[in-house]
């Protein structure tokens, strides 16, 4: 909802900064009176703007950047709706089959609609990929990323569009994707860590898929997955570890401008 406002104000020469809500909530938690009104919110944001030294950099997204972001949001919503529709139709069709009730033309048309939506989803994904990889520089960087097992051209495009290579450490990428682990410890008690879920859920889904693909099609990743399972990790935990490893590898390859070399993957 902020994009139109931020874009128009920045075009008029205003210095626009976009804050993560967690940032402003941190300030609000220090107040004795936790008022939640438009006036109180405006005063809090003004206080942050005047006093905070570590504000995000100025908003500089172009119309093309915003268009890509909106298309990725549309793709994410479309994938969820297709999954729900397919689940409904699968359950309905199975019931009809068990009851020996023939499908009519309307029911068959719904199945065709689901198939058509999947085709449209693939076309939208391809369009996003092409829009991101228009420049020769990004195409070259994409070739570095797709050399990593499990990383598709679309995942490479998402990395190049949304992940900042000027950051100091890949942990920041992992946190942005919502794949960092929250530690739970007090005194001598150590609780079970869990995902923060504070990052982008669509990116988390895509990188989880990259970890799964690497495990299925690359021997070293598969061996590492099997070792993690023997150590007591669940299937999901093991794939998350692989996904985070892929993000770290991608970060290093872009920093060093090098292709993936499996000799150094699990050299220990």
What does this structure look like?
With 268 residues, the protein is mainly α. Helices cover 65% and strands 3% of the residues. The chain is built from eleven helices and four strands; from the N terminus they run H-H-H-H-H-H-H-H-E-E-E-E-H-H-H. The protein has helices spanning 3-11, 21-28, 38-51, 63-98, 105-132, 136-145, 153-162, 170-176, 201-217, 219-230, 235-256, and strands spanning 181-182, 185-186, 189-190, 194-195. The strands form two sheets. The protein has a two-stranded antiparallel sheet. Strands 2-3 form a two-stranded antiparallel sheet. The longest helix has 36 residues, at 63-98. The chain starts with a helix and ends in a 12-residue tail after the last helix.
How do the helices and strands line up, and which of them pair or pack?
Blueprint: H1 3-11, H2 21-28, H3 38-51, H4 63-98, H5 105-132, H6 136-145, H7 153-162, H8 170-176, E1 181-182, E2 185-186, E3 189-190, E4 194-195, H9 201-217, H10 219-230, H11 235-256
Question: Which key terms come to mind for this protein?
Answer:
two-stranded antiparallel ribbon, mainly alpha
Largest sheet: 2 strands, antiparallel
Strand content: under 5%
**Radius of gyration (Å):** 23 Å
Shape: globular
Structural class: mainly alpha
Mean pLDDT equals 88
Distance between the termini: 47 Å
Low-confidence stretches: none
Write the H/E string, N to C. Answer: HHHHHHHHEEEEHHH
- Main-sheet strand order equals 1-4
The helix content, as a percent range, equals 55-70%
């Amino acid at each position: 909802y902020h994009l139109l406002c931020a874009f128009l104000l920045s075009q008029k020469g205003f210095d626009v900064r976009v804050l993560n809500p967690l940032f402003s909530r941190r300030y609000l938690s220090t107040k004795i009176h936790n008022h939640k009104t438009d006036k109180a919110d405006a005063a809090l944001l003004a206080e942050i703007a005047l006093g905070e030294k570590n504000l995000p950099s100025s908003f500089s997204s172009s119309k093309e950047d915003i268009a890509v972001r909106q298309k990725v949001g549309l793709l994410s919503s479309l994938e969820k709706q297709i999954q729900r529709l397919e689940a409904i139709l699968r359950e309905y069709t199975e019931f009809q089959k068990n009851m020996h009730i023939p499908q009519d033309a309307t029911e068959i048309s719904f199945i065709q609609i689901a198939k058509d939506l999947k085709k449209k989803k693939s076309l939208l994904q391809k369009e996003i990929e092409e829009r991101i990889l228009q420049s020769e520089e990004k195409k070259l960087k994409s070739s570095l990323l797709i050399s990593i097992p499990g990383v598709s051209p679309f995942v490479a495009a998402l990395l190049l569009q949304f992940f900042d290579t000027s950051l100091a450490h890949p942990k920041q990428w992992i946190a942005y994707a919502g794949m960092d682990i929250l530690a739970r410890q007090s005194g001598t008690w150590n609780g079970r860590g869990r995902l923060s879920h504070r990052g982008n859920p669509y990116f988390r889904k895509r990188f989880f898929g990259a970890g799964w693909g690497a495990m299925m099609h690359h021997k070293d990743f598969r061996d590492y997955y099997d070792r993690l399972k023997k150590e007591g990790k669940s299937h999901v935990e093991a794939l998350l570890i692989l996904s985070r490893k892929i993000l770290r590898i991608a970060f290093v390859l872009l920093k060093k401008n090098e292709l993936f070399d499996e000799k150094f993957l699990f050299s220990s």
